[in-house]
Amino acid sequence: MHIRLSADAEADLEALAGWLQPRSPQGLDRLLTARFTTLTQLEGFPLLGKQGRVEGTRELVVPRTSLIVIYTLPDAYHLDVEPIFDGRQKYPPDAEGPTE
Predict the structure, then answer these.
(1) Model's pTM, two decimal places?
(2) Which of 6, 20, 75, 94 could be a cystine partner for 28, CB 3.0 to 4.6 Å?
(3) Is 12 in a helix, a strand, or coil?
(4) Which CATH code for domain 2-86?
């Protein structure tokens, strides 16, 4: 199984690293290690996550963090990581904008 990160997933990780680095470099190291370990586990066990809230996706919480990895299995050889978000955020975001 080959893991591919979407542009959204890479941007999410860069934003998180930019926010966390000045506040807690050690925390950032722990978070990146946990994320790497989780993605490595998904390579061998792609059904490890639960069925996602958005049809066609799966979700897996990164242990000891509030991060949730959203991913899809487009074929037998690839695992595509979509957004990575903080579990305290609303997901999925509303498809419609605010109503007035």
Answers:
(1) 0.82
(2) 20
(3) helix
(4) 3.30.2310.20
Q: How many CB atoms within 10 Å of residue 11?
A: 13
Residue 7, phi then psi, degrees to nearest 5:
-60, -35
Give the distance from CA 69 to its chain's centroid.
2
Between CA 49 and CA 88 the distance in angstroms is 18
The domains of the chain are located at 2-86
Q: Which two tokens stand for residue 75?
A: 């074929």
- The CA-atom distances, in angstroms, between 87 and each of 65, 75, 95 are 9, 27, 18
Q: What is the pLDDT of residue 12?
A: 85
Q: Beta strand 2-5 with 78-86: parallel, antiparallel or unpaired?
A: parallel
Q: How confident is the model at residue 99 (pLDDT cuts 50, 70, 90)?
A: very low
Structure tokens at 95: 């498809």
Strands 67-75 and 50-51 come out as unpaired
